[in-house]
Amino acid sequence: MKSLIPFKTILIVFLLSKNVTSQTPDNPWSIGIGANTVQVIDESVESKFGFGPSVSIGRYLGAGFSIGANYSINKFEIDNLNTDYTSVDGFLKFNFSSKKFSPYLIGGYGLSDFGKKLSFEGVFKSLGAGRTIHGGLGFDISITNKMRLNIRSVYRISEEKGTYNHLQHIVGFNYNFGQGDSDKDGIPDKKDACPEEPGLKEFNGCPDTDGDKIPDNKDNCPEEFGTEIMNGCPDSDGDGVADNEDECADQEGLVELNGCPDSDGDGVADKDDECPEEAGAEGNKGCPWPDTDGDGVSDDVDACPEEAGTAEKSGCPELSNEVVQTINELATKINFAAGTDRIMGKAVMISLNEIKKLLDENPEGSLVIEGHTSSDGEAEANLVLSQNRAAAVKAFLVNLGVNPDRLKTEGYGEERPIDDNGTIQGRVLNRRVQFRTEF
To answer: ∠ CA(122), CA(115), CA(133), 5° rounding?
Structure first.
């Protein structure tokens, strides 16, 4: 008997199936159209194969399991009598894989009707209808993304009167569908990383506007052709900083300076460096800190930037200017008679004792005692005399208890007058000693 499914119907279904994936979570629904043949397994009757159409609908559940329903009709001969056959079933199906060739097991429950209309009532007022359990195996073979060839054989057990145990073989095509594609890019929404924007399959449905092979959803510069290492952004100067983050996009620079160069290597970008060719300090706009008092301690760390001192004292002198100034005020009372280095007078003694007291109160730091003369006499003799005057003051202070290591002497003769040597008063003032700090 020829098939009841026209070849054109199968062809139309095949063409409609293009680009649909097999029955999976992405395409859970399946409609099947095919042909079935039935073979009665009963030695008490003689039967011939018959052919007829078969339709089914199924729904994927997960983990390889599907449920569905199948309806088939047929015509064949039993004991030389034409018999109408109908079956309707619910089934549970288990696919062993989702690959191109996928074997499966199937089983279910339904009805088989052999079309016998006898005088006593059966399930459907017909002795030829009976409840049926069936089970078997089959194969799904992928043809296109939408279409699968389905072949299966099941053994159907129906033991009510007027029914027969029988084999049913079905061959057909399944059309799988079910998931939407909002942006119409051919990628189902469930798999589409950008379901509202038409995109490319290789980027899970996301677009690549600038064509740099980096999808827009991962591209920090989706409208500018860039590189993967720059997260899709260009790097015009090739310094490893993307243009959108490069503060000097046209100059090769350093990553740590946001892409700007640092010519003097002082950590201050040239654009912010007021001394770009001279290494300096960030806190001084890229320029080196000055040393106003010339003591070797730069002004940024010099606690006394206008007073020469030592590094150990953060740029301050060990004896402050105030102390040295007081000592020199006391030293103005230390005068010498012309041509001598003798220390004389009660006031001189008081001054030297006060100087000793100040040094005791300030135990850190050393002093230089400078000796000076008026212009009376020869210059060479005056130089020696000035040295002796300084030494005399030192000896007196040491005798009072001052540590000699804290005192140094120097003589300058008549070279550094503080008043006019042409007057008696001026010459008296020039015969003197002065103190200064040593650093």
So the answer is: 65
Q: Whole-prediction pTM value? A: 0.42
55 belongs to a structural domain: yes
Q: Is residue 311 situated within a structural domain?
A: no
Phi-psi category of 390—alpha, beta or left, where left has phi over 0 and alpha has psi -120 to 50? alpha
Residue 19 structure tokens: 């680009």
Neighbours of 92 (CB within 10 A): 15
Instruction: Note whether residue 167 is domain-resident.
Output: yes
Find all residues with CB under 8 Å of 268, minimum gap 6, and list them: 262, 280, 281, 282, 285, 286
* pLDDT beyond 70 at 26: no
Tell me how far apart the alpha carbons of residues 117 and 121 are, in angstroms, rounded to a whole number.
Answer: 9
Domain holding 22: CATH number?
2.40.160.20
Q: Which residue has the tokens 């003769």?
A: 413
Which structural domain range is residue 408 located in?
321-437
Domain boundary at 146, 177, 208, which?
177
Whole-angstrom distance, CA of residue 350 vs CA of residue 356: 10
Look at 175-184, 212-221, 276-285, 293-302 and tell me which has the smallest mean pLDDT: 175-184
Closest residue by Cα to residue 339 from 300, 374, 295, 311: 374
| CATH number of the domain bearing residue 418 | 3.30.1330.60
Domain-located, residue 79:
yes
As for how many domains the chain has, the answer is 2
Structure confidence by residue, pLDDT tens digits, 72-91 = 999 888 888 888 899 999 99
Nearest to 34 by CA among 172, 175, 174, 176: 172
235 or 145: which leads in pLDDT? 235
- Higher per-residue confidence, 170 vs 23: 170
The confidence score (pLDDT) of residue 346 equals 81
User: Which of these three, 132, 148, 177, is where a domain ends?
Assistant: 177
Exposure string over 359-380, b if 16+ CB within 10 A, otherwise e? beebeebebebbbbbbbeeeee
